[in-house]
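Worked problem 6 (solution included).
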Amino acid sequence: MTHSKQSTTDSIVSKHVDAPIDDPAFHLDVLDELSYNADVDGAVPLASDPDNRYPYVYPRDVASITRAWLTALRHDVRPDVCRARIVDAARFLIAVEDDGWWYQRYGLDGTDQSIYRQEDNVAHGIRIISHAVLALDASDDLESVDEAFLSNAVESIDAAVAVACSELYDANAHLIESTTSIHEGAIESGYTLWVNCAFLAALQQAADALDRIEAAGLSGDVSRTEDIDSSGGIDTVALDDIVERVGKLRSLLEPGVERCFAVDGTTVPRRYTLDGDRDERPDITLLAPAYFGLEEVFGEHAVRAAERAAASLQDPRLGGLQRFRGFYHDHDVHQHGGNGPWMQYTAWHAQFRYDREECERGDEVLSTIIGHTDATGHIPEHLSTRERFEQFVEQEWDTGSDFEKEFDDNVLRDVSFDRIAEELGHMRTAYNEMAAALEERDVISFAAPLAWSHAEFLTALLKRERGRDPHA
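Solution. The predicted structure is:
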């Protein structure tokens, strides 16, 4: 890689890290190590090592990882491997659901293992499949890809857009409605900034992907090879009709988002409740307009919202960004063993700084993340301290408050109590391990390596070295 700016090694690598964490190849290696062949189709990264409580595939995480792979491909960093990884991930997403709904998490056998509704996964599925089409196009492989994959990719996008239109889009509010998404609790109920931004980004990328298909001379009827009608013919769907449906929803949603979240003279809210109240409490989703590259919709509102998040959520002791302010009496706030910084969100902050060519500030943010890695360079999910953990146990875990927040009937899918009990057991094990670890140290980290954290760090590195990629 050609370095046009000051060496990354000189400015952001902490002395305690033995791994070349400044090298994008290192993070690609970590993502490779966390990727597994699926029993259904394709290969896909798990959230973390299977022994780290998360032996699941999360579409939200995978979308961030395919975004990082696509950025690496476009920057000529292992392009062939990245293209193959993105396409394999899309194959998995197409295999696990055929009706346009994607849920919180899946096993490698394709079974739905989710607990929460998390409607934003519909948008993330569209993004992953669109990333695959864009990766094939960037590699000049779009015309040679097998017809079945391309047909099913287009059909999956169309099905997901249909779900968004019929089940999630509120034509009166002109917004997408949700119950949970990037956070598990009721903090996501109503019309949230994150979910609406995720869908806007998904629709934009879907439109771009479909345009590339048309430009490659593949326009016309796209066939679903598995759907054979009684006469032996193949059921087809017109690509032009799908393009029109994507464009129609996008044309409805974009002005709705703009007039609700990007109004001059007002603070960007993180959500509206179902009865229309503005929720202006800061949380990490205020970075969504910048993260998803929606400056054309939000203008300077994207910058102001991100700056507000960075200022409000900075951890005063550990550095990095917290998910939200840690007021434990707030039923929407989940402390998860004690409030603290989350490394993937902190990497969003670094990306924002590099996008604005604030390289020194971005380097400081990445240095904070590196300071919380282990000697092998593995990046965790989030951190807590002894004091915070002990308060969490006393105020929320022992009282049952955490259980009430985590498994609120209003945000759960219709799942068996056995699945809830299993998740609760994982939580208890994790907190027991934390308590034991904190007997010898004052800071504890969760789930290292976290694939999502490495993907966002990788994207930040690439933004630092090559400047902003508006299509990432």
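Discussion: The chain is about 50% helix and 5% strand.
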